[in-house]
Specification:
Elements lengths: L5 H12 L5 E4 L10 E4 L1 H9 L3 H7 L1 E2 L2 E6 L4 E6 H4 L6 E4 H14 L3 E4 L12 E3 L7 H6 L5 E13 L7 E7 L2 E9 L2 E9 L14 H7 L7 H6 L5 E7 L11 E3 L14 H18 L3 H30 L3 H17 L1 H6 L2 H4 L7
Parallel strand pairs: 1-7, 4-10, 8-14
Antiparallel strand pairs: 2-6, 3-6, 4-5, 9-12, 9-13, 10-11, 11-12
Bound molecules: flavin-adenine dinucleotide (FAD).
The site of flavin-adenine dinucleotide (FAD) has 33 residues, from helix 1, strand 1, strand 2 and helix 9.
Length: 363
Amino acid sequence: MIGAGIAGLTAACALAQRGFAVTVLERAGALREVGAGLQISPNAVRVIEALGLWPRFRAISAPSQRVELRDSAGRPVAVLDLARHRPQDRFRLVHRARLVTLLEQAAREAGARIELGHEVTALPDVPLLIGADGVKSRLRPALNGAETPFFTGQTAWRALIPAESDAVPAAQVFMGPGRHLVSYPLGQGQRNIVAVVERPDWHEEGWSISGDPAELRAAFARFGGPVPGWLEQVERVGIWGLFRHPVAAHWQDGRRALIGDAAHPTLPFMAQGAVMAIEDAWILAACLDAGPDQQTALARFQALRQPRCQRIVEAANANARNYHLRGPTRAVAHAGLRAVSRLAPTRLIERFAWLYDYDPTAL
Ligand SMILES: Cc1cc2nc3c(=O)[nH]c(=O)nc-3n(C[C@H](O)[C@H](O)[C@H](O)COP(=O)(O)OP(=O)(O)OC[C@H]3O[C@@H](n4cnc5c(N)ncnc54)[C@H](O)[C@@H]3O)c2cc1C
């Protein structure tokens, strides 16, 4: 396996628990405290439970009771009341680094070998090679040829600030013309902020590029509600360019397979990047375990995963437009959302039943 991100570590755990011998090669010298918040929806929590990790995951994450859509002044537009309308489901908020640490421990406990500081430069010739090596995968071009992602014209900042002691356990989305900001408490006293603006200048697609907090504050200076107070507290901020990549056409060739961002990088607007990686990992392990042979198992894996991931990536692309509406279109759309939220609140959530009701462990 190449890559000890969320896809690679979950797959290592799932495969090792089923008795496969797994070695993970990760270029980072240590799985350090990198990244910020992730929203983990019930479709991935089912995998975490099936891996026996729910009690530990619950301890490192926080519940998400609702999703609140607000306008840039902070006025409510719509609420997806998850706790009320989907009480059986677990929506959680977690720091990426804490989830990575948990998955690393679980994979090692299950018997997987994880070799840190090992960058794969030439693809090894092994009976099964899994590329869990993220958006700049080395294995993906070997299966799909060279591809060029395109810059969406959107740039995102992300930052962590201290959470208020009475922080609302909800993901809040503040939508303004050409920009939006998402924030939620992560547990352990932290609040995550992701702020997206449309701007034509280009930023690299990477997770460790530093931005300027003053620039972030200036971009959201017209926002109201809690946003100015949050942004005042930002001391360090990361910045990354949002690129659109096609979902890979070829996920496997019988000896090699792609999972996670290596197969289907997504814009962050459905909060499903890590979730799809976790789903992939379980289903890959289940297919390989079910046999009858590796080629059939990998073909089945792609057939099960590709259409679903395609649908999720397309939904995230659509949200990019919906959040940033301007002028009269924005007024009409917000009025419509307000009405649906008031008159038929379950309709907003049920639109996503296909996403959240999916149970990878039923395979
Ligand atoms: C440092 C970092 C921080 C992130 N922070 C956030 C965040 O704050 N919020 C968010 O929503 N998403 C974040 N993400 C993305 C999110 O984790 C992924 O979209 C999602 O979890 C899918 O994970 P993945 O395992 O497929 O890919 P990734 O998480 O990208 O993991 C890929 C792994 O492969 C390793 N790798 C790549 N190439 C090689 C190679 N040639 N040899 C050996 N190892 C290799 C990388 O070092 C990395 O550990 C972050 C990703 C990274 C890498």
